[in-house]
UniProtKB/TrEMBL annotation:
SUPFAM superfamilies: NAD(P)-linked oxidoreductase. It comes from Colletotrichum liriopes. PANTHER family: ARYL-ALCOHOL DEHYDROGENASE AAD16-RELATED, NADH-SPECIFIC METHYLGLYOXAL REDUCTASE-RELATED. It comes from the Eukaryota. The keyword Heme does not apply. One of its GO terms (molecular function) is oxidoreductase activity. Keywords: Oxidoreductase. This is Versiconal hemiacetal acetate reductase. InterPro entries: AKR_Detox_Biosynth, NAD(P)_OxRdtase_dom_sf, NADP_OxRdtase_dom.
Amino acid sequence: MSKCFQFVDEDKGPIDPETLTSNDGPRVNQVGLSRKHILDAVDRSVERLGTYIDVLQIHRMDRDVPPEEIMKALHDVIESGKVRYIGASSMAAWEFQMLQNIAVRNGWHQFISMQGLYNLLYREEERETNQYCNATGVGLFPWSPLAAGVLTHPWTDRSDLREQKDPFLQLLFRTSENGADKAIVGRVQELAGKKNVSMAQVAQAWLISKGCMPICGLETKERIDQAVGALEVELSADEVAYLEESYVPKLPIPF
């Protein structure tokens, strides 16, 4: 799997996160979903990989580019043999459906996957996007399945380095946390104790029960083993309902 949207620093130097999506100055045509950037990004990815791309995900929607241009470029990289399938990530449900409809009208390749923000603490994708994907056979690959680690340890345990250093953890979860989040984390901890598994495995098992294949950050063998172990964790319908019961709807995060 590979992605296309943000700037990729070939020199691996320091990157300012605020300019990752800035299609201007020295990074013009190296950001976004213009035809030029999609074709160039695929060529560079294939060169680095030394083989084809199985799934190319557009990493967010580019609202500065005509949607027809986006879909035609994605169709063409599949036809070239460099990409096998295409997927999308975090956008409004109507935008995703619009892109799919453009592909259908023109006989172009359609998206086979959606990579949205979805976990026990953020379930707004259930309103429209997940339902549309399930109805049309689009696979769901949620990102941040563990809510940036919030679902992996007790609510009051905030001593790890990520709690202090990760701006996305603060932006996406800590700044909007509420009593419902605390209750959900507590229930994840409770079920993990009863089943003698990790909290992460319970959170991942819940996503699997919803028909999703979560994208997990795996930096160590222990985390790989833990993620694989989540496949063996079975949650009953009552346990799934118990984990979901405390959820309070949130304002959708704009992407």
